[in-house]
Design brief:
The complex is a heterodimer.
Chain A (H helix, E strand, L loop, with lengths): L3 E4 L2 E4 L5 E7 L5 E8 L3 E10 L2 E4 L6 E3 L9 E3 L8 E8 L7 E2 L3 E5 L1
Parallel strand pairs in A: 2-11
Antiparallel strand pairs in A: 1-3, 3-8, 4-5, 4-9, 5-6, 7-8, 9-10, 9-11
Chain B lengths: L2 E5 L2 E5 L4 E8 L5 E7 L5 E7 L5 E3 L5 E5 L4 E6 L8 E8 L4 E3 L3 E6 L1
Parallel strand pairs in B: 2-11
Antiparallel strand pairs in B: 1-3, 3-8, 4-5, 4-9, 6-7, 7-8, 9-10, 9-11
Classes of the chains: A mainly beta, B mainly beta.
Chain lengths: 112, 111
Amino acid sequence: NAGVTQTPKFQVLKTGQSMTLQCAQDMNHEYMSWYRQDPGMGLRLIHYSVGAGITDQGEVPNGYNVSRSTTEDFPLRLLSAAPSQTSVYFCASSDRGTTEAFFGQGTRLTVV
Amino acid sequence: AQSVTQLGSHVSVSEGALVLLRCNYSSSVPPYLFWYVQYPNQGLQLLLKYTSAATLVKGINGFEAEFKKSETSFHLTKPSAHMSDAAEYFCAVSDRNDMRFGAGTRLTVKP
């Protein structure tokens, strides 16, 4: 019973590089979200999806792209990494927007 | 958009003392409210949730929270702190489409 799986767990990027953070869930949840966690700021919503083919922006979407081609997967793309994107990234899924969100273990990203 | 304010970024209590973590919310629709706990280097785990049934919600590990609409509050309490309660706690609000989190409160428990 994997739940929400994020890869990689750690990543170091150089400024300007691109990468994709992977997120997969095996609970058949419709809702999936990406958050970033920074000290003293809690978790801030980057993008979310209410179902396959549907995505929307959260609080801090700039510099990030998402797509949702399947129910299971919700990758987060950084097109041109910046030091300000150094953070811990969490993916979450839920049955609906009003039910418990299940979180992955996080990806710690450092941009140098 | 909905939002959450957690009062106090750090709370320190002695083992066996009352734990009180404060959360106030803002929402244009009847809110769904949650408390999550995060242990070091881990993801978030649900402690409890309010979904418009009972205003006093009981969660895991002896925690409970009371929804007070007039005060727009959803404070988390535990009668007697245990060393294992040391962690960061997040209050969250959902308007049915997305979930927003507070800045978090780090709880320290002194022996």
